[in-house]
Amino acid sequence: MSTNPNTDDFFATVATKSDSGALRGDYSQADANYVVAQNWEGYTPAQHALWRRLYERQARLIPGRACDVFIESLKALDVSQGIPRFDRTTDALYKATGWQLVAVPGLVPDQTFFEHLANRRFPVTVWLREEHEFDYIVEPDLFHDFFGHVPLLFNPVFANHLQEYGKGGLKALKLDGLAYLARLYWYTIEFGLIQSEAGLRIYGAGILSSGGEVEYCLSSDKPRRVPFQVERIMRTLYKIDTYQETYFVIRDFEQLFNDTAPDFTPFYERLKQQEPLPANALLAGETNLAANHLV
Ligand code: PHE
Ligand code: FE
């Protein structure tokens, strides 16, 4: 992560590389698409035990907080007992939505990341965080990537959206629009909230894999909760080393798909002429949705 909370010129994940000066995983065995073998047999009993503890903590937090499809898919995945085998998950996932998991050593270049998504492949980091990183990790690890992201890939509309996002990323690279598209990813795929009849629910992976933000994002009166609006999000800076100051709320995954379908070329042109908004902005006419007050 960058040490500057206002920096969001790149995906926060990519910023990690320049800060640490080195990549954490072992890239020496990766192919041209940065894919490696998972080598599931190589995980130690201690690593499986750490996974179980991470899983248990999050699984306890999500009822009534994560969206239904996340909860149902997670249960069906049946990965509470240890680090999952990506090939087994791919068997089920491919049948459901035509997506596959690919193992990667860690962060991959933007172009590679987008190419995977555009081809319905989701890259999952092979290494698990260490004990001292139980509560907080600065770059995505196996637990974040798998627990946070994989369950939603079983939803057909979300799965289609993520593929379109990948294609949009390849396009944004050519149009110099990556900074804007990265904000969209951040405020949706990583930190998005969704409306439900029972109240607000979480679908963002960055929240769902976090011990503290699951509760905070729904119940705290501090952050803003603003209805989803694509261009507004693409103008908005984000924090990478604190809880979010604003969450954007979609009505349903159809809205996410439909509202991101237009050609972003004119959006990028407009955005380049504007100053970005601070992470805690609330615009005139914007509703700040109330927290869920759970009993
Ligand atoms: N519609 C966007 C474009 O034309 C692509 C995109 C789709 C981006 C879905 C994000 C999510 O660039
Ligand atoms: Fe992520």
What topology emerges from the helices and strands here?
Blueprint: H1 12-20, H2 45-61, H3 68-77, H4 86-97, E1 100-104, H5 110-118, E2 121-125, H6 142-149, H7 156-175, H8 178-190, E3 193-196, E4 199-202, H9 205-208, H10 213-219, E5 224-227, H11 230-234, E6 246-250, H12 253-259, H13 265-272
Parallel strand pairs: 1-2, 3-6, 5-6
Antiparallel strand pairs: 3-4
Helix pairs in contact: 5-7, 7-8, 7-12
The chain binds phenylalanine and fe (iii) ion.
Describe the structure.
The chain has helices at 12-20, 45-61, 68-77, 86-97, 110-118, 142-149, 156-175, 178-190, 205-208, 213-219, 230-234, 253-259, 265-272, and strands at residues 100-104, 121-125, 193-196, 199-202, 224-227, 246-250. α5 (110-118) runs antiparallel to α7, α7 packs antiparallel against α8 and α7 runs parallel beside α12. The chain starts with 11 loop residues before the first helix and ends in a 23-residue tail after the last helix. Helices cover 44% and strands 9% of the residues. β1, α5 (110-118) and β2 form a beta-alpha-beta unit. The protein is of the alpha/beta class and 295 residues long. It has a single domain, classed as Aromatic amino acid hydroxylase (Phenylalanine Hydroxylase), CATH 1.10.800.10. It has 13 helices and six strands. It binds phenylalanine and fe (iii) ion (FE). Fe (iii) ion (FE) is lined by residues 140, 144, 148-149, 190, 205-206.
